[in-house]
Specification:
Elements lengths: L1 H11 L14 H13 L12 E3 L2 E3 L6 E6 L4 E7 L3 H18 L4 H17 L1 H12 L3 H18 L2 H4 L3 E6 L2 E9 L2 E5 L7 H12 L3 E5 L6 H12 L7 E3 L4 H9 L3 E7 L2 H13 L3 E5 L4 E5 L5 H13 L9 E7 L6 H9 L19 H12 L7 E4 L18 E4 L5 H4 L6 E7 L2 H10 L2 E2 L1 E5 L3 H10 L4 E4 L15 E2 L2 E2 L6 H7 L1 E9 L19
Parallel strand pairs: 7-8, 7-10, 8-9, 10-11, 12-13, 12-18, 13-16, 15-16, 18-19
Antiparallel strand pairs: 1-2, 3-4, 5-6, 6-22, 11-21, 14-15, 17-20
Length: 542
């Protein structure tokens, strides 16, 4: 386990660098950064420190360790995130534990009113959330709004808790009832990734709180701004102090979450190494853990597909968000005669505009960090030495106005399944193309892959679609749908090496994750009832 902790430490380690001042932002970005810093108490986009949120207060950390949050398009220092101290973490746990005593007994209708008001406030402040995501994460503005919307949909679904939390009751014998209720677990924790700064916190905050739990959220140290705005919106929506607490940091805080006896469950989204470490350490300490990790999502392109729909869908799913999505299409399998469509795929990818996230017409922005860019470039560089071919190379892209950005343009690589670009999750705008003679060959390739988040097929044959759906071994299947992430009335259902834990995110699974069953069997004999009507007959003393 010590080795796992060291690997996690290396994963989180950040090099010491010098960064541009906020004056390096262009006029549009600077105006948005100034407004975010002025309007929100817990975050900054103009160089000041991000705060912890503990017991209903935004508080400055006493730490002497700070992590820089940098605009990936300009290397501008936006804020510094604290490595929350152990005493501050303990305060957050104590606040959550204290709040649980009353919040868990708060009526379901009152908890429902909180999420109703929260969804209203998120809609009202969607621009601020999206602006923060563009500045800190690098997404295009349209994609950042999509990040917020997909999280908002979970909040909206949580409003239906008065129906979805209903229990069961049955008279099992004369005057004997057995009742099953879903009750909260207690203090829970959520560890969120950098690639969805709003959506992933909103997968957990509404589901945990509406079911009566309290929550400690650790957003990514790379882009915490959206989480801090959401925390303030929760406060405005009426969430009592201590029900939600936000702490920051890397390995020490992750380990503290895994080790704290007060924390009953951990929700994690992120990479493989961190996910395995958290799952193993958390479950060893008796916690319920759900972990969504790496992926290698395949798109199968059949010769009978609607060519325009398929090519546009694959390009969008492969390169949107600069490929930094756990459900991005990272492999396209060209079946039979569809192999001749590769030049068309390349031409469509060439038309995508790489630019800063606030720029009009931008299709994809920068990668999150220079180290991420370097890793993606290294993987691309292995393609030709290993016998593959690079049909479109985005490594040398130059983006006017952004000379220091972490940009890589759309890249398309023809490869074999033995090559590094296929075996590893690239997590960048790099699409691997492989050939298959038949649908059966494509299915064999997908099913042999260790990951299992999702796979899609483009075809106009119902029979082909049926065969694919029945035989593909992944958790989420798309038929002419490039990113088959289920809406939150359903549940996330990745499988194989993409997940650890057997209870999924949001939907009915989310309710099950944040609750436990309590079964009560009671006997109240009707014949023993007191308070029968008085008798007016003459007493006979018999």
């Amino acid at each position: 386990m010590a080795a796992a902790a060291r690997r996690l430490a290396r994963l989180y380690a950040l090099p010491c660098r010098s960064y541009a001042s906020v004056s390096a932002l262009n006029a549009t970005a600077r105006a948005k950064a100034d407004k975010l810093s002025a309007d929100w108490r817990g975050t900054s986009a103009t160089g000041n420190n991000t705060k912890n949120y503990i017991a209903g207060e935004f508080v400055d950390s006493k730490t002497d360790e700070w992590l820089d949050v940098v605009d990936p398009a300009t290397q501008t220092l936006l804020t510094r995130v604290p490595q929350t101290t152990s005493s501050e973490f303990d305060q957050a746990v104590q606040a959550a534990s204290h709040a649980y005593k009353s919040w868990s007994r708060t009526s379901l209708l009152a908890r429902q009113r909180f999420v109703i008001e929260l969804q209203h406030l998120i809609r009202k402040n969607a621009d601020a959330l999206a602006d923060s995501i563009v500045l800190e994460q690098g997404k295009t503005l349209a994609d950042a709004h999509g990040d917020v919307l997909r999280g908002l949909q979970v909040v909206e679904t949580a409003v239906g808790i008065t129906s979805t939390l209903m229990g069961e009751k049955l008279e099992v014998s004369k005057d004997m009832d057995t009742e099953v209720r879903k009750v909260p677990l207690g203090v829970c924790a959520s560890i969120a990734p950098f690639n969805f700064p709003a959506m992933i916190p909103l997968w957990t905050i509404p589901m945990a709180t509406v079911t009566g739990n309290t929550l400690i959220l650790k957003p990514s140290e790379r882009d915490p701004g959206a989480a801090m705005i959401i925390a303030e919106l929760c406060e405005r929506a009426g969430l009592p102090a201590g029900v939600l607490n936000v702490v920051h940091g890397t390995v020490p805080i992750v380990n503290a979450i895994c080790d704290s006896p007060a924390i009953k469950a951990i929700s994690f989204v992120g990479g493989d190494r961190a996910g395995r470490h958290i799952f193993e350490r958390g479950t060893r300490n008796g916690k319920r853990v759900q972990a969504n990790m790496g992926a290698k999502n395949h798109a199968v392109l059949m010769p009978d597909a609607n060519k325009n729909l398929a090519l546009n869908s694959i390009v969008g799913a492969a390169f949107g968000a600069a490929g930094q999505r756990c459900m991005a299409v990272s492999v396209v399998v060209l079946v039979g005669a569809a192999q001749s469509w590769l030049p068309d795929l390349v031409e469509r990818a060439k038309k995508l505009q790489v630019n800063g996230g606030f720029e009009k017409g931008a299709d994809l922005g920068p990668l999150i960090s220079p180290s991420s860019k370097k890793r993606v470039e290294e993987i691309i560089s292995t393609v030709e030495p290993e016998g593959g071919r690079i049909h479109l190379d985005g490594r040398s892209i130059s983006v006017p106005g952004y000379p220091n950005g972490n940009f890589i343009g759309p890249t398309i690589m023809e490869a074999a399944t033995t090559m590094r670009c296929y075996r590893e999750e690239v997590f960048g705008p790099a699409l691997t193309v492989i050939a298959a003679e038949t649908l059966d060959d494509a299915l064999d390739t997908i099913n042999a892959n260790p990951y299992g988040n999702g796979a899609v097929i483009f075809t106009q044959s119902g029979a082909t679609a049926r065969k694919f759906e029945a035989e593909v071994n992944v958790g989420q299947v798309g038929i002419n749908v490039p990113i088959p992430v289920p809406l939150p009335m359903f549940a996330w259902s990745g499988n194989k090496g993409s997940v650890l834990g057997d209870i999924g995110f949001y939907g009915k699974s989310g309710i099950n994750f944040y609750t436990q069953n309590k079964t009560t069997t009671s006997l109240w004999r009707a014949e023993d009832a007191v308070g029968n009507r008085a008798s007016v007959n003459m007493p006979t003393m018999n």
